[in-house]
Write a structure and sequence with these properties.
146 residues, Ribosomal Protein L31e, Chain: W, 2 domains, 4-stranded mixed sheet, 4 helices, 53% helix
């Protein structure tokens, strides 16, 4: 997993028609990230938090710049606000999953091995097996007699 910060300026979009500025800002952000990350736009996803930040002032008035955190995982780049809530939540979830994996591995290692039986226990088991075998034979003989 790769992670990095990037600041994108939207000053170039000042000459765009007002009814298209917010949509153009999203496209411009993807284009800038495509150039920076050298990835195709389909593998870049913008979180709702970033989208809401761009649209916060409406379609006409854009923020002059945006600071984003880019997290690349499994070939997909996700874009978060630099100090956004979603990034913190996702990192916390990732830590929890790592901790669960570690505890699962520890539990697997802790699986108890069967204890080795002493000579006395082995002798007792043999005697019990012999008694059971004798009882079964006696029952078979009684059944034949009847």
């Amino acid at each position: 997993m790769k992670e990095g910060f990037l600041t994108v300026s939207f000053k170039e979009l000042g000459h765009k028609p007002k009814p298209q500025r917010a949509r153009q800002a999203i496209r411009y952000l993807k284009k800038a990230l495509k150039k920076h990350l050298r990835k195709d736009p389909e593998s870049i996803t913008i979180t709702s938090e970033v989208n809401e930040f761009i649209w916060k002032k409406g379609i006409h008035n854009l923020p002059t710049k945006i600071e984003v955190n880019v997290v690349e995982k499994d070939g997909i780049a996700r874009i978060y606000l630099k100090e956004g809530k979603l990034l913190g939540i996702e990192k916390a979830l990732e830590k929890e999953s790592k901790e669960k994996k570690k505890t699962a591995k520890k539990e697997e290692k802790k699986v108890e091995k069967p204890k080795e039986k002493t000579d006395e226990e082995l002798k007792k088991e043999k005697e019990l097996q012999e008694k059971k075998a004798k009882e079964k034979m006696a029952e078979k003989l009684e059944m034949k007699r009847k």
